[in-house]
């Protein structure tokens, strides 16, 4: 093994640059050459591959996004697409891969290893924090803080106008961002896909608004919640409580950008180095993670096939604090 290829894939997340930097510098420290594959699997297929030196990753630790760029490639889902990618990997003499992304990216890397035997280690990079095998994913902490900053601002208007604000945060299939943001932002409720009784709880809360002397409220909803997001929820609440003044804000991609938090930079730096250590130890088709503050390895198959659950105590805490 002489040359390692690194790429980011799927949705970007703050801290991906810090992670690429760590992969590149740790690999060079151990005597490897490093190549950057641009635009994830799309660039692997088109041969969009560049040499990376220790200087190529200077002055990027503080930058959001990914300087290698990222994409979601439909072509790589096909056998023909992966065969084209393999041609490029051979042409560029890449012996092993480090993939920074989510479970879709792990699935691609796992298939590529099965078909062509190119060793690969995955690093969890997504703001959703929904990946099994790690307590936290790269970008999650920054996204939560960005959403929290927005909620603190919205709270000013909610209070001044005595309104209910529904704030929709990202989380395609998971409520990690919503629940943390709800607790940290003092919200009245968090509606998340993991809690099927959340709407019932919210209606009960709202029915007792006068008794509770509530003049304004913040309700956080995960985009993947079964209620269908902020606008659908607003309509339902209007019908149930026509007297309330309700507004919705969808935070969207604002949560994906920005300079990574210190916590994300440290996590990204640890995981980037851990991926190179894993390759040196002969590991392949695994993802690295941090569990209970220690580096851990999880086979791709297990990481993809398992569901990371939200702590029921956290769901309970959000409810208790919103009485
Ligand atoms: O997986 C990260 C994520 O930001 C999800 O929270 C969201 O549903 C999705 O990506 C949006 O993807 P895109 O940027 O491709 O629209």
Q: What is the rounded distance between the termini?
A: 58 Å
Mean pLDDT: 97
Determine the number of helices (DSSP H or I, runs of at least 4 residues): 11
Total count of strands? 11
Would you give an account of this structure?
- There is one protein chain.
- This protein has eleven helices and eleven strands.
- It is of the alpha/beta class.
- It has two domains: 183 residues, Rossmann fold, CATH 3.40.50; 116 residues, Phosphofructokinase domain (Rossmann fold, 3-Layer(aba) Sandwich), CATH 3.40.50.460.
- The strands form two sheets. Strands 3-2-1-4-5-10-11 form a seven-stranded mixed sheet, sandwiched between helices.
- Helix 7 links the parallel strand 7 and strand 8.
- Helix 1 runs parallel beside helix 9 and helix 6 packs parallel to helix 11.
- The radius of gyration is 22 Å and the shape is elongated.
- The chain binds 6-O-phosphono-beta-D-fructofuranose.
- 6-O-phosphono-beta-D-fructofuranose binds next to loops.
- The site of 6-O-phosphono-beta-D-fructofuranose (F6P) has 10 residues, from loops.
């Amino acid at each position: 093994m002489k040359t390692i290829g690194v790429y980011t894939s799927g949705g970007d997340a703050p801290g991906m640059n810090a992670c690429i930097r760590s992969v590149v510098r740790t690999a060079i420290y151990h005597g490897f050459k490093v190549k950057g594959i641009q635009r994830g699997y799309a660039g692997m297929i088109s041969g969009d591959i560049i040499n990376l030196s220790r200087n190529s990753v200077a002055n990027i630790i503080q930058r959001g996004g990914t300087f290698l760029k990222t994409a979601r490639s439909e072509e790589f889902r096909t056998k023909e697409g992966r065969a084209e990618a393999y041609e490029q990997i051979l042409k560029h003499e890449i012996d092993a891969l480090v993939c920074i992304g989510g479970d879709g990216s792990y699935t691609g890397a796992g298939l590529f290893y099965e078909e062509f035997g190119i060793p690969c280690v995955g690093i969890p990079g997504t703001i959703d924090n929904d990946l099994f095998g790690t307590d936290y994913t790269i970008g999650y902490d920054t996204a939560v803080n960005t959403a929290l900053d927005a909620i603190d601002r919205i709270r000013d208007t909610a209070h001044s106008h005595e309104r209910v604000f529904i704030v929709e945060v990202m989380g395609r299939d998971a409520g990690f961002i919503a629940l943390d943001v709800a607790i940290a932002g003092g919200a009245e409720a968090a509606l998340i896909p993991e809690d099927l009784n959340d709407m019932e709880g919210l209606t009960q809360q709202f029915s007792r608004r006068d008794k509770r002397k509530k003049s304004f409220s913040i309700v956080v909803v995960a985009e993947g919640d079964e209620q269908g997001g902020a606008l659908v929820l607003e309509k339902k609440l209007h019908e149930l409580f026509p007297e309330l003044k309700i507004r919705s804000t969808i935070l969207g991609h604002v949560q994906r950008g920005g300079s990574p938090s210190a916590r994300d930079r440290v996590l990204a730096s640890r995981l980037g180095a851990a991926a190179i250590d894993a390759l040196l130890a002969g590991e392949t088709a695994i993802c690295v993670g941090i569990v209970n503050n220690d580096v851990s390895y999880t086979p791709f198959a297990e990481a993809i096939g398992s569901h990371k659950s939200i702590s029921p105590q956290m769901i309970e805490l959000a409810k208790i604090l919103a009485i």
